[in-house]
Amino acid sequence: MSRVPAALTALALGLLLCSGSALAKKEAETGAEPNTQVPAGNRHYAASGFPDRLVASPAQDAARGFSVAWRTDTSVKAPVLEWVLAGDSPDVGTPIRITATTQALSTELGTSHHHRADVTGLQPDTLYLWRVQGQNTWSAWNQLRTAGRAEQPLTLLYFGDTQNKNLSHVSRVMRAGIKAAPDARLSLFAGDLVSGGDGQDDSEWGEWFAAAGWLPQETAVAPAIGNHEYFEEFEDTPQERRVLGRHWPVTFALPRNGVDAADTSTYWFDYQGVRIAVLDGTSALDLGTAKAQAAWLDTVLADNPHPWSIVLLHQPFYSPREGRENTELRDVLLPVVRRHQVDLVLQGHDHTYGRRGEGQGATPQFVVTVAGPKQYRLSDEARATMAPVGEDTQLFQVLKIDPTHLRYEARTVTGRLYDGFELTRGTDGRKQKTELTQGRIAPRDCTRAQTLKGRADRCWE
Questions:
Q1: Are 56 and 220 a contacting pair, CB within 8 Å?
Q2: Which of 84, 131, 387, 415 has the fewest C-beta atoms under 10 angstroms from its C-beta?
Q3: What is the mean pLDDT of the chain?
Q4: DSSP states of 383-401 as a string?
Q5: Is 222 exposed, middle or buried (0-12, 13-18, 19+ CB in 10 A)?
Q6: What is the pLDDT of residues 239-290, one digit of tens each?
Q7: Are 294 and 266 in contact (CB under 8 A)?
Q8: Is the peptide bond before 153 cis (omega within 30 degrees of 0)?
Q9: Chain centroid to CA 415
Q10: CA distance 171 to 191
Q11: Percent helix / strand / coil, the chain, rounded to 5
Q12: What is the pLDDT of residue 209?
């Protein structure tokens, strides 16, 4: 009786080894890494009673408040956020409590509750402690400093698309940014934080937060929405329709001051001498909201009391990738950017690096960059109209801003200076640009003919 199970066990083991060998051989041949490190069917990032995915974002007046989003399982229905002035003692005193609003989200990992709390009435340039509640438990106490006065110097981080392989490859980019700019108070993201669309959306968001570490708790995070935060829906015809992904409205606690046509994905805020306006390029291009966003942006920039302005969006006005022409952005939204002499336009989407200005003026400066491992190829037009450009390079950006200077540095994941310039604002408001050339490495090109999956239009998947 014992020989049959033993034989079956040996056969099963042999088949398993063969299939494992075949899989290993296939992976070795392609060398392609999956988007996440989560095995199929694994529930590693499922919600629990412990609060996770904590992320702070700036209020419209970031000197006076911030908002926090976090996640738990459905056992937590009306949790609270506690905040208090930071001190040197573990005795934090008596914190102020704010009851969160809660929304449910159903994903491949089950149903979770996403919470939002808005902290208001704070003092500028002040360090606060905050924590959030779960089911009979709490998060760690986190420290966050509010924006200072307009005349104070500011350091912020800017990341292009993270999108895929967040835990394995993007995590070191974010760590490198934090190490290069430990005094950063604000982190901007140019959209496509995750790839999505493969039935692993929630696990991908889990890996994004795992890659980010404590950056979303101790800097204020302000993301633009990308096309991968939408999903494509087909009706009776092959014509696709963009639908806002369910994660976006609940994952971040963003200012509620956007244009009605894209109210959860456009917003603006003031941060220490800079007005930052965030656009939704996907909605403008695919959902017909370009004119509404242009009118809204015109209003936002018209009463800017600060010396500097930044526009953040996913799709670029000038694309460095072959075959991409975001015509409606240039026709409808670009005139507003030009009219208000926006200083920086920070973008992603094209998974390369490229910077260009317009004419002889110092501003605006248009930047496209990428933080993640998916790497495309540059067009001939980009090589002729942008400088510097780059392929096959993961980057982060550090901006240092005071009332008269805006210094921009793009650095590789190993910390090397790839691009840099400084804008200087005169007493008459006019701006001059100085290139930062000392220590800058040579532009990088992709040296392989195709990706590991055989695609010639990309450098890496």
A1: yes
A2: 415
A3: 92
A4: HHH-SSEESS--EEEEEEE
A5: buried
A6: 457 899 999 999 999 999 999 999 999 999 999 999 999 999 999 999 999 9
A7: no
A8: no
A9: 19
A10: 16
A11: 25, 30, 45
A12: 98
